[in-house]
Design goal:
The chain contains ten helices and eight strands. It is α/β, with parallel strands linked by helices. It starts with 7 loop residues before the first strand and ends with a helix. The structure holds 2-phosphoglycolic acid.
Amino acid sequence: MSALRRPIVIGNWKMHGLLAQAEKLTAALVHHAGCIPPSAAPYIALCPPFTALHAVRAALVAATGPAPIALGAQNCHAEPQGAYTGEISAPLLKDAGCTLVLLGHSERRHGMSETDAQVRLKAQAALAQGLKTVICVGETQAERESGDALSAVSSQLTASLPQGAEGEVWVAYEPVWAIGTGMHATRDDIVAMHRHIRSVLARLVPARAGGVPVLYGGSVKAGNVAEILAAEGVDGVLVGGASLDAGEFSAIIDAAAQV
Ligand code: PGA
C-alpha cells in the first residue's frame, strides 16, 4: 500500500440486492463511513445490480449530502447507445450517478465468455464517459497449478487494457479460484502478482503506470483484510460476498482506515 494513496474498498454485490435490502445496507454503511475522520477515510464504492443503482444513489445522497461513498456498476456495453436489448451503456451508468464501473470480472469472462477484446472496448467506452474503470484480471486454478499464473495475467491485462485512452484505469487482481471460495492467495503470491502487474503496466502505459491503483479481490473478509492491505503493492480490495453484510463490510472499511 502506497503511503500517498487512500486505500480503496469496493463492494461488488453481484446479483444480490433487493431494494429493501439495498437501502438498508447502504444506510448502515453510510452511517458507518460517516463516523470515520475524513483524513483517514478510505475511498469506498458500492457496485449494486443495475436495478438498485437508483435506490442506492438516493440512500447515499439522502444520508450524507456529498456522499463519501461512490456509486459503481458491475458491467457496461461497449456502445454508447443503440439496439442492444438488455444491455446498459456507459452514458446510461453516468446518467444514473455512477462514477466507477467494474469490467472483465471473472464471472463474466469465464461464466459468459467475455473476451479480452470485449473488455478493452468496454473500457474505452467507460473511460470516454469519465468513469473510473476497474479492469479485473486473474488466473484460473489450472493456470496457477501449472506455473502459468503470471503469464496468464499479463496476457489478459495486455489485451484488455486500452493503452491510448485518457482517464482513470484501475486494475483488480482476482485469482479465479479465490472468488467466492473462502480461499485467498498467500501474501507472497499477492505481492509477486502485484509487482508483476505493475511491471506490465510500466510497459503498457509508461507515463502513468505508477498512478494506476492495483486492488486485490477474492474471498476478502474482515478477518484477512488487514494482512492483504499490508501486502506491498496492494492499493485496496474488491469485495464480493463480505460486502453484503453491513458488519463485515464495515469492519473491512475500518481496516482500510487504519492503513
Ligand atoms: P468474493 O468475490 O469476495 O465473494 O470472493 C470477489 C469478487 O468477485 O469481486
